Queue: 2 jobs
Job 1
Amino acid sequence: MEGVAMKLPSFKSLAPNAISIGHRSFSRVRRSSSLSVFSAASSSATVATSSESVSLGHRVRKDFRILHQEVNGSKLVYLDSAATSQKPSVVLEALQNYYEFYNSNVHRGIHYLSAKATDEFELARKKVARFINASDSKEIVFTRNATEAINLVAYSWGLLNLKPGDEVSLTVAEHHSCIVPWQLVSEKTGAVLKYVMLNEDEVPDVDKLREMISPKTKLVAVHHVSNVLASCLPIEEIVVCAHNVGAKVLVDACQSVPHMVVDVQKLNADFLVASSHKMCGPTGIGFLYGKSDLLQSMPPFLGGGEMISDVFLDHSTYAEPPSRFEAGTPAIGEAIALGAAIDYLSEIGMPKIHEYEVELGKYLYGKLSALPDVRIYGPRPSESVHRGALCSFNVEGLHPTDLATFLDQQHGVAIRSGHHCAQPLHRYLGVNASARASLYFYNTKEDVDSFVVALADTVSFFNSFK
Amino acid sequence: MAAAAMSCAASLRLISFKPTLFASSVQYPAKALILRPLKPSELPSYRRTIITFQKISTGTVRPPSASSSPSSSEDVQPIEELPPKLQEIVNLFQSVQEPRAKYRQLIFYGEHLKPLDPQFKTRENKVEGCVSQVWVRAFFDDQRNVVYEADSDSSITKGLAALLVQGLSGRPVPEILRVTPDFALLLGLQQSLSPSRNNGFLNMLKLMQKKALHLEVKGEEDSSSGESLESSFVPTPETNGGASVVDNDTESKPSFVEDLGAEDSDSGSDVVALGGRGKRIREKLEKELNPVELEVEDVSYQHAGHAAVRGSAGDDGETHFNLRIVSDAFQGKSLVKRHRLIYDLLQEELKNGLHALSIVAKTPAEV
């Protein structure tokens, strides 16, 4: 679904001494060169005919009240969206609205409220399907989050289809949620996990992965965009490789769906998972995309109401997908709010969001790598290599915990420190932990500048002890 | 830039950071720097979840529920209850207003922490739940005070570890066990006290207290003093009279601990008048052990949930006692044997509702 096509000013043309006037409403960045005028066609961008163009980040900030606060005496600079994103007011309103006006259990009732709730819930499912270009909304299973979705595949598809000696291919850079379920299931089935390491560009070695995929491989489970390395895997290629040997592919799209156009038809993946809370939606809801015939063949995961057809004392028959995999009362309000988040993102337009983030991500990378003693993980950005808008890094002689603590306490900058649920990757890189700054479309160039200034201050503070 | 509104007469200027300032002991009247009430309702009542001992060398026993002094917050441990060095540290931090200077101070402590030999960086010594790596080692000195060593790869965590090491080292087990993490609030470092998996500071303190307790327990198996022990998690198999030491979980209260090992010269005031059982205990011990000194203190009221009321009449209320006995009868007997002797004498009581005894048993020569 195309968003509004607007021409964004690129950062290169911004004057270095650009002033931003507050963040309460949208701030305007002064530029000396001529500007392109764009027309605002969506309700979220209320700048109509201003002769100054405003960056996406500045434009949308008014929708995110949480960003307008002070922490520890400094303005909040939120750079942890890879952990969880902030939510625009429309999403919060949708959730509130649901509870205030039509809260009711879905699929079961006949009365007006339950019909309305069911309609909205199923509409949200359609929105998700459309967002990733699934062929049918029945291919969308609502889960608690991406982790649960992967576990669903592991326990439902995995237990049925994996036999002793079968191989599951992973990369060393996977999130724990795409490692542990496979470990659990391979213990039960006798399947073997194989990992591909990083190449010299600090990206999972796709060539080695190709070699590793053999007739023994039954599943390839990989991330789309890495939450540590910011690298992007060529999913289409990998899928072709895997399908050639009859293996299925599961794509962990947690860091891609929120940030760029993801088209499951193009990717041709068999399974794809994502979490709502990373894409401006509430926590407590996520989804699994699975090809129809695949889901049809899979046994239930959790048992209970909703997923049954008929229940007898000694056996039950099960519903068709997706209901088969949605036991119990779902997170109805949350699903509807996720739908609202998708509407919000779509109005801005995923291509535009992606374009903005590529620029801002490059800016972040540039400023960060210019600091001495900073080591950023993952590939260098180039014409052919687009990084995600995040940087995991370490500063020589400074523990990431110290860094993050000081940044928070002294500067109000929120980053993450730790292993980011990727311990094997960190072990491979030879570090215990790293710091990570991650951006989303509501961050601005000023956020990056504040971060870099704060980081320099932090480094010099700790260096003073040496 | 000295903060404008420093409440204490701070001749302590920390702009130029001179290490010598911290080497000297800072003299502050402790009460002048008593904490501001820190939203008592929000603080976890940590006190009730850790092992309660009382009667340490200094100060009077403070019942956890009552709070008579208006300046101290009911749920936050008063500063006077902290080991002396820890009090000093807290005072020092309170005198420094500027956050950066506080951090400098903290990191300075860390930098001057005695390095921990790599052989002690074991799994057993690792603090759970730290994003950084922290190890803590504990052993007894020859006076059965706990000595700590620690290390961390993160400067701030190392600083916190150093505070704890400095503040708690060389102190006897019961005193260490009484410390609650509340004092961290007084440092003004915005140290969170929420008991989450990631709270390194909290977990550090817990591990240090757990290790102290284990040293105590392990020490009972060891009849020769002067041997330094590493704390281990193997509980002593030797228990008596239906009471046992719980050592798997620092949250639970052990109902019985042997020989507090404290060199206390305390006032021994019987805060609570002895009820029937207390009197019987006293009589028995006097008769059988012919002690030079004997103190029997009823501390049942300290144990919440035991339905014990201070000084209540009737045996039901008398469940926990502290005993201090100095007698020749202990001559030539190991610690374990001494305690066994006492239990044997009090068999009857132990069968009938006496829950626990804290015992100090010495010969006249040892006092």
Job 2
Amino acid sequence: MDHKVQATRSALHSSGDECTGRFTSVHWKSADTDAEMSRTWKRQRACVHVWDPFFLDDNWGETTTAVTGTSEHSLSQEDIVRITKDLEDSVGLDCRRYVTRSIAVILGLLVFFTPLAFLVLPHILWPDKQQRCETACEGLVISVAFKLLILLLAVWALFFRPARAGLPRVFVFRILLAVLVLLFVTSYWLFYSVRILHSQDPDYKDIVQYAVSLVDALLFIHYLAVVLLELRQLQPCYSVCVTRATDGETRHYNLGQLSIQRAALAVIEHYYCDFPIHNPALLSASKSRAAKHLAGLKVYNVDGPGNNASAGIAQSQSRAMIAAAARRRDTSHNELYYEEAEHERRVRKRRARLVVAVEEAFTHIKRMQEEEPKKAPGDVMDPREAAQAIFPSMARALQKYLRTTKQQHCHSMESIQQHLAFCITNKLTPKAFLEGYLTPGPTLQYGKDHWLGRRWTLISEASVTSGLKDGSVFLLKCVDFCLVVTSRKIPYVQMSEEYIDPKSHKFVLRLQSETSV
Amino acid sequence: MSFVPGQPVTAVVQRIEIQKLREGENLILGFSIGGGIDQDPGQNPFSEDKSDKGIYVTRITPGGPAEVAGLRIGDKIMQVNGWDMTMVTHDQARKKLTKKREDVVRLLITRKSLEEAVKHSKGSHPRQ
């Protein structure tokens, strides 16, 4: 794989000197499997300045740095392996997951085979002393079998689901249930071994009834597990307010009684669905304004060094700066207003051009009907080729619009063409095709590099296994941004009823007549 | 002009005598009335207390007998020829005013400016 990477890289560099701006190439068409796609995608990230077909003006350098930070690194075999490994969980977390899973499986097997052991052991240990199994006894054996089957299915449904996330602390309720089951089964075994095995009780019906009671109790513990793990948090109890720290996007959700880590998991899952994608390019304007505020004033220390304590100097300096800034006539609000109006106008103009270009491009393609006489094979195209055929006519307008709204790093050319092919296949209108580019959508809609392998850190003053309370605050930190979550209790509602007799709806006319005399 | 139920009503009134004018078959007075205990007092624009169900003068024909006699728009009619007008229906009031056999109606009317005039005169000449 190493030489393949190197060879392709050199090929890319050599053909890049021509910079023809072709949209199709051999190496994109050959990407058939998913793994192949991800590898070609990674190579594209490294060498994007060569293959960028939007080489329309001189600021291609701006495109390079905006797309990804790795464009200046050269990829080698180790880097590719490292990237792939980063995308999966680290070794420590895997270990814990396997340990928990293996403990669960062992416990499950123990619980499952205990009733069977209770039934089978007397026959093995003292076969000669056993009574025959009568009708009632046989009925009980059948019921044990079916209850065990139901228990097996129920445990598989509840516990053996793919794990959604790796949480920092263990799940308290599961530990509780596991301990309860263990205690339970242990006490049953104790009783069994002392009273039945030791005394070699010949009455088989009693043993079968004992096994039936064990299975019943296990089914009830499973019911308890369903209530504790699934049902308890369904009723909404707290309203959480989630704010993204960088740009202030806020949403509110209703959660039930959960521990802080489970509430954080629910919030993250909602985040991926509801919040528009985090775009760091949109924050640069406010940062530059803040820098201008600070840069406007210079503080000189006239008294000379060593006069006061350094803390006193710093305080007086900052106070002087604040006072001077308050007195200064600041016209930056004016600049902001006109800048925003100008930007709005520019965006609208580009958007109008884009909509017209896309509508025109879509008119060039017509879906071929089955009844039409067969055209020459050169004319008939599959969706991907059709997308590549009409893409150049709208590429420029789309690229300009994405640059104006600072979204160009969210959409690669490949993804745009794929989306276009998808829209053509499913008979979507031009407006439907443009919807994803005109409004920023939720994070999952974009390519995998925006959300794959994200690590979230839960920062909380209270313990993460403690329950959510009114006024509890915690932070969810990601690499680029931070989510601040505050919770409020949904108030207790006291409702009273009022009965209205249907016959009580009566009306009178309100007159105000005027008579001339 | 407001009243307390159960207590006698006191008001400063002006006596106005209107000669009815004959127009063809009808005797007209030249004004319009509004109000009455069967009407909605909240829509009366002239009353101070919006629960007052008395009879009010709502329009005056310019140059008519009422204007000549000194009736003004917004006046509340307390008595007509001795008949009380503070607790009558609209129709009863109309009937009392348009009796065919009477040529003259003597009204007792009250308005806000009368009370203020009395207060002024009392104030400027105390204990006369």
